[in-house]
Amino acid sequence: MAKFEVNEELVRKLADLLQETGLNEIEYEINNHRIRVAKGAGAVSYAPAPAAPCAPAAVAAAPGAEAVPAGAVTAPMVGTVYVASGPGTPPFVKVGDQVSEGQTLLIIEAMKVMNPLASPRAGTVTQVLISDGQPVEYGEPLLVIE
User: Fold this and answer.
1) 124: exposed, middle or buried (C-beta count within 10 Å: 0-12, 13-18, 19+)?
2) Pair (36, 80) in one structural domain
3) What is the pLDDT of residues 98-134, one digit of tens each?
4) What pLDDT, in 10s, does the model give residues 45-62?
5) How many helices and strands (H and E) does the chain possess?
6) Do 138 and 77 share a structural domain?
7) Whole-model pTM?
8) What is the DSSP pairing of strand 141-145 with strand 123-128?
9) What is the pLDDT of residues 84-96, one digit of tens each?
10) Are residues 81 and 115 both part of a single domain?
11) Domain around 43
12) Exposure of 92 by Cβ count < 10 A (0-12 exposed, 13-18 middle, 19+ buried)?
């Protein structure tokens, strides 16, 4: 495993976000590394993120909740989703588009950082489950690629 270098600026931003929001802890994941910052304990932990499953697992839905559709691409972080590179520009993808692995599907803004979401596989976009400017949660289905 490659050595994980601590991004001190990110840790400081996370700590500032804790102070600003009144939260007790916050966790951020990028490139299979997870950073957790917590108040009170004086602890900042860094750990490799668990490997993502190769195929989506069946999710047991709680009453009133919907299961994640097969082939769904889910949000890797909490943030605001943008379907285009800017106002008035065409969306990165729409229903019926053929996409290739690594192609940008949308952007998620988190902590004032624009994070492009790359397609995990090649296929056809069959559903777009979000709208431009919508807040999203970690693990929320964004679109479906078959």
Assistant:
1) middle
2) no
3) 999 999 999 999 888 888 999 999 999 999 999 999 9
4) 444 545 544 444 444 444
5) 1, 11
6) yes
7) 0.55
8) antiparallel
9) 988 889 999 999 9
10) yes
11) 8-48
12) buried
